[in-house]
Amino acid sequence: MLTFDTLYDILAAWPSRAMPAVGSDGVFDRIRQILVRAISDGERIQMGDLMPLLRHVLRRHSIQTMTMARLRVPSTGEWPSRDRWAEFGIRAQAVATGQFLIEALPWSPAWMAETDTPLFEDAFGEGDVRLDWRRPIDPFLAEASGFGTYVSPGQREAVRSAFLLPSGETLIVSLPTGSGKSLVAQAPVLVRGLEGGLTICVVPTTALVLDQARQMAELLRARHPRGEIPALAWHANLTPDARLSIKSAIREGRQGILYCSPEAMTGALLPALYDAARDGLLSYLVLDEAHLVSQWGDGFRPAFQMLAGVRRGLLSACEGPGFRTILMSATLTPDTVETIDALFGPSHTIQMVASIHLRPEPQYWVHRENVDAIKDRKVLEAIRHAPRPFILYVTKRDDARRWLTILRREGFSRTECFHGETGDTDRRQIIDQWSRNAIDGIVATSAFGVGIDKRDVRTIIHAAVPETVDRFYQEVGRGGRDGRPSASILLCSEADREIADHLSAPALISEELAFERWSTMFAHAKRLDAMGSLLELDLDVVPPKLRQQSDYNASWNMRTLIMMARAKMIELESRPPEMISRAEDETEAAFDLRNEEHWARYFRQTVVSVLKSGHRNKSVFDQQIRDERSRSFDAAALNRKLLDDLLGGKIEISHLLDQLYRNHTPGRTLIVSTACGGCPVHREVGRKDLNYTEPLAYGIERVGPCDIGFFREQFPHLNIAAPVILTVPEPMDSSSMVKILGDLVATFGVREIAAPDAFRTGTPELGSLHTRASDGMLFMQSIEEEASRPSSYGVPRATLLCGGSVPPHILLLDRPLHVILAPASTPDPLHASRKLAETGTNVISLDQFKLGART
C-alpha cells in the first residue's frame, strides 16, 4: 500500500523500487497512478499533475504530525528544477548528487488580505469537522441496504416518512448536501424489490442520471447478488432495443427504479408510465433538486414545471391508490416552497420533512480582480497550490473550454471539461474517471456536480460569479462530503457580477403579453369537459404580434402557463397518450419515424384546469399576474442583495445563507442551524462557527391508513384513544418481552417499537421482529432520544419500559394504538403515590393479552 513512508522510499530510489498495488487513500492512489503509468508505459512523468499532489501529501503530513514533512526526489532528467518546484509552493534543497529534499510551504499570496492567509491549511489537514449524528438504522432497512446507521435523525425521518406517506400525496424533503437524500428514493426499492412497483426518479442532469443509477445498481447487486439488474438510467445514448426493453419492463412491473431527465418523463417515457399507472405499477415519483422548479432565468426548462401536470394526469389514471410524490433538495428557499405548493398541491396534501444545518466543511475566500489576464494568473496560482481533487466552476460553456485548454497547456493533463453540451458518452467516461480518481480536476458549468457523490473533493474554485447565492452554495457543497474541511475560493471581476445579474434576472412575461398569449391559447383550445374548464392547449399557437412558431414562442407560452399556475388561476394537468398503430405494409423504420413525429406533436400540447372564472377579464388577469411577478422580483431582489453581501466579504456567510433559507410559513417551517468553517469575517475576528446545534428532525404526522380493528375486537373494554398499559412480570425476561412484542407486530399491526437503548443493544432478537410484520416494516425508537424529541408518526406503537421512572412524554403521545409494556411496580409519573398499573381501567394483564393474541 502506498503511504507517506513508502512514497519516500520509492521517490528516493526512483525508478528502481516496486510500486504498491493500491494507495492508502484517494490522494496516494492518484500519485500511484501517475508513477505506475511512467514505469509501465515508459512515458514521461506528468509533473504538472504530480507536483500539486506531492504538495498535498507534504502539507497534510506536516499538519497532522506537526513537523515539517519532506520527500527526497531526483533533481535531474525530467524532474523539476528548484524554480519550478517553487511555483507550486514547494521548497527544494539539494542534499546529494542528483537529489532534492522537498518540503511544502503554507500559501500566503500577496494579493489576499493578511487575515485571510495562509489558504487551504485546514483542507490539507483533513480533520473531521462534521458532528456525528448517526443513529441506528431500522433493522428492516439494514437488512435491505447493508447500512448500519442513518447519517442523521433528519435522514431517518425522511426515509420513514417516504414509507408512511399516504398514497397520492406529496412529501417535500430538505436535507443538507451529503446527508443521504438518495436513500429516500432507494429505500422502498431495496425493501420491496424490483417488482414492488416503479420508482421513477427525475433528476436535472445526465451526469446525475448516470451517477445515481450507478450507485443504485451497486446496492441492488449487493442485495441480490444472483439477480439480474436492469438498466436503471434513461439517456440519449440508449439503443432502440434498450429503450424498448425499459418500456416493456415498466409496463410489466419489472423495472423497479429508473433515473431519467424531466424531458424524458414528460416525453418518450410517458406512454409506458400511463400504462403502469393504470395497472397500479407506479409507486413513487421522485423529483431530485426540486428547487429548480422555481427557476425563471436563462436556465428555465419547461419540462421541470410540466412535471406537475404530468403527475396530476398520472394520478388521475390510477384506478387504485395513487403513487406517492417526493420532492427533494438541499436548498429550498421560501419562494421555492411556495412554488411547489402552487404546482404540486393542493397544499393540504403536501407534507414536509426539513432538517437543515449549514455545512461546516467549506471555508470561504473571496477576491475581486477586474483585469482578466491578472485574474487568470491568480486562478492558475490557486490551482497550483490547491488540495486535490478540485472543481473549477465557470458560467459559460466557452469559458469551460477555454480553461481546459489553459490547464492542459500548463501541464494539468488529468483534467476534464463538463458542460451542457458534453456528449453522453463523454459524460459517462468523465464520471467514471472521476469516481476512480483518474481525474484530479474538472472544469465545469452548473451542468456538473449536482448530486454527484464524490466524497473527497477538497477544493471548489469559482472563476465567475454564480447567478444566485443558492447556486453558489450548491456548488460549494460538492466539496467536503466526507465531513472534512474543503476550500472554496471565488475569484471574480465586475464583469462577472454583471453576467450574474443578467442570468439571475427573472425572465417573466409582462401582464399585457401574458394576457395576449393566454387569450390566443384559450381561443384555440380544445374543451375536454362539458363545463369547458378542462382545456387542451397548443403550445405552438402564435399570438397576433408574432409571425411564426418557434421553440422560443412555445417556451414563452409555457412560461405564461407556469405564471398562471403559480398565481393559482389554473392547474397543470395531463392526458393519457393515444397510441398509433402500425400499418400492415409499413416498414419498421417508417413506423418508428411516424411514431416519433406523432409524439413530437403530442408533446407540444398541454392540459390545464381553469380555477378562476375571471381569467378572461383583462383587469382581473393583470392583477393576478402582477402580484405573482412582484413576488418573483422580490425574491430576485433579495438574492441580488445577498450576492452583493457575499462578494463584499463583510457579512458572515452563515448569516447570508440563514437569510436565504429560513422559512416561517406554517406547515413549511424551516429553521437553519448555522455553521461556517471559516470566512473573511470569521478570520478577521479569529474564530470559526463549528459548534452548530443539531437541527430539528420530525417526521410526517399524517400517514397512510392502519388497521387496528382486530385489537378493538379482542379488547373492546379498552380505550385505545389513551395508552394501554400491559403489565409484565418482574424481573423482566428479554426473550419473553421479544415474544410479546412479536405478537403485537404480527397480530395487532404495531409498526413502531420504543425501548431503552440498553435493551435495544443487548437484545439482538429485536432485529428480526420486522419479519413478522405483514409489510416487513417496523421502526425502532430510542426512549432516551425521545425524551428531548418525541417521534410524531401516527402508527400503532408499543413502548417497553424496564422499570424506574417513566418519561412524561410517553403518556402524551398521540397514536392510533399505544401499548405500554411495564412492570406492575412502575411508578405513575403524573401521580407519585401510585403505580402506573393503578391508573385506571385501561390496563391489561399478560394473561389477558396472551388469550387475545391466540384467539
Features:
single chain; 855 residues; alpha/beta; Rossmann fold; 40% helix; Helicase_C-like; hydrolase; helicase; DEAD/DEAH_box_helicase_dom
Q: Please work out how many helical segments DSSP would assign.
A: 30
Strand content: 15-25%
Spatial strand arrangement across the major sheet:
8-7-9-10-6-11
**Average residue pLDDT:** 89
Number of strands: 31
Largest sheet: number of strands, sense, barrel closure: 6 strands, parallel
Helix content estimate: 40-55%
CATH hierarchy: architecture of the domain at 151-357: 3-Layer(aba) Sandwich
CATH class of the domain at 151-357: Alpha Beta
Structural class based on helices, strands and sheet pairing: alpha/beta
Uncertain runs are: none
Instruction: Label the overall shape.
Output: globular
The CATH homologous superfamily of the domain at 151-357 is called: P-loop containing nucleotide triphosphate hydrolases
CATH topology of the domain at 151-357: Rossmann fold
Terminal Cα separation, in Å? Answer: 63 Å
Please give the radius of gyration in angstroms. 30 Å
Organism: Bradyrhizobium xenonodulans
GO molecular function: helicase activity
Pfam families: DEAD, Helicase_C
Domain Helicase C-terminal: 375-529
